[in-house]
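Appendix B. Raw example, untouched.
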Amino acid sequence: MLTLILIAQLAVAPCTVPVPENTGDWIQVTSANVTFCVPSTWRVRGTRASYSGGSIRWQNTAPPVMTRQSSGPQSIGGSSSANSTPVRTERLPEMIGGRQAEVWRQMGVGRLQTGVSFSQSPQFFITGEAAGDEQVALQLAVFRTVRFTN
């Protein structure tokens, strides 16, 4: 068993794009037509990466349908039920790896959610859940490492 673990560790590729300082080593994750990086302490399995402060998931498909009323930064208020904490969503267009992306974060209902979507072909998106602001910042840094291979 130990031999298999060592072989798997040797096959891990280091991250080749800029990552935040003081966040340790990062590794590259490869999905169809896409690479991105996560801290080496994260556990990557299939289309999910998890760590003590949250997790992310990705898909090589069209992103979930999001209602967009205007271009540019948005802040949308709402609530999940009549007696709950209001939900606040912030969406920002951003260039990542030379491609147009929409980065978003949602706060409220006892959790923080993040996401990035690329609607140009090939389509790709990542969503995440985080335990706090520091983990949200780390997930946003992960999103900014996305690179398309074709």
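End of appendix B.
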